[in-house]
């Protein structure tokens, strides 16, 4: 038993090295996409965002929204769901735990 | 690899403001629920003591009242 534990402990550095070698290219692809797609909006982009929101409201008012294809509607629904999920992740961060409130 | 797509600024602001709002909401709700849970725990402690006391008295009485020859 003690010998097995010793062998395991001696293998840990090589395991960590293997994990790093495995994850490095995947991490780099993640950063490659995240640096462009996941960054917070710069202050210059916020007026554009407000403009986009008002475009949406105008499209809703003129009834143009009824002309979206089902494919577009599904895609927009998926994007809206993703934005909603960010809210729940923020809630998990705010309450300090993953499942439930640790009061 | 496909080039990274340029995300519309509306989606970007919506995402990160949703994250911020979620953090604030989570913190606020946690601060609201914490004293309520502590109060509940305190009340539960007091009630538990009372119940155990009553159970002890009941047990003592029932032992005193039961007359069997297997004493």
Multimerization state: heterodimer
Mean pLDDT of chain B: 90
Q: Could you tell me how far the N terminus lies from the C terminus of chain A, measured between alpha carbons in angstroms? A: 41 Å
Roughly how many Å is the radius of gyration of chain A? Answer: 23 Å
Number of strands of chain A: 0
Describe the biggest sheet of chain B? none
Q: By helix and strand content of chain A, what is the structural category?
A: mainly alpha
Q: Can you summarize the main beta sheet of chain A?
A: none
Give the CA-based shape of chain B: rod-shaped
Strand percentage of chain A lies at under 5%
- The averaged pLDDT of chain A comes out at 89
Poorly predicted runs of chain B: none
The 3D shape of chain A can be described as elongated
Helix percent of chain A reads over 70%
End-to-end Cα distance of chain B: 85 Å
GO molecular function, one term (chain A): proton transmembrane transporter activity
Family (chain A): Belongs to the ATPase g subunit family.
Organism (chain A): Cyprinodon variegatus (Sheepshead minnow)
Keywords (chain A): ATP synthesis, CF(0), Hydrogen ion transport, Ion transport, Membrane, Mitochondrion, Transport
């Amino acid at each position: 038993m003690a010998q097995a534990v010793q062998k395991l402990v001696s293998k840990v550095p090589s395991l960590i090295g293997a994990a790093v070698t495995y994850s490095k290219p995947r991490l780099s692809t993640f950063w490659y996409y995240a640096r462009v797609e996941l960054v917070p909006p710069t202050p210059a982009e916020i007026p554009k965002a407000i403009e986009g929101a008002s475009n949406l409201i105008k499209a809703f008012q003129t009834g143009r929204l009824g002309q979206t294809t089902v494919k577009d509607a599904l895609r927009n629904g998926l994007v809206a769901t993703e934005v909603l999920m960010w809210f729940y992740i923020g809630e998990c961060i705010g309450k300090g735990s993953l499942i439930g409130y640790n009061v | 690899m496909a080039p990274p797509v340029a995300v519309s600024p509306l989606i970007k602001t919506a995402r990160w403001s949703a994250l911020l709002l979620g953090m604030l909401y989570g913190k606020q709700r946690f601060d609201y629920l914490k004293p309520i849970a502590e109060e509940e725990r305190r009340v539960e402690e007091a009630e538990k003591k009372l119940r155990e006391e009553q159970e002890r008295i009941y047990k003592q009485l029932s032992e005193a009242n039961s007359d069997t020859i297997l004493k």
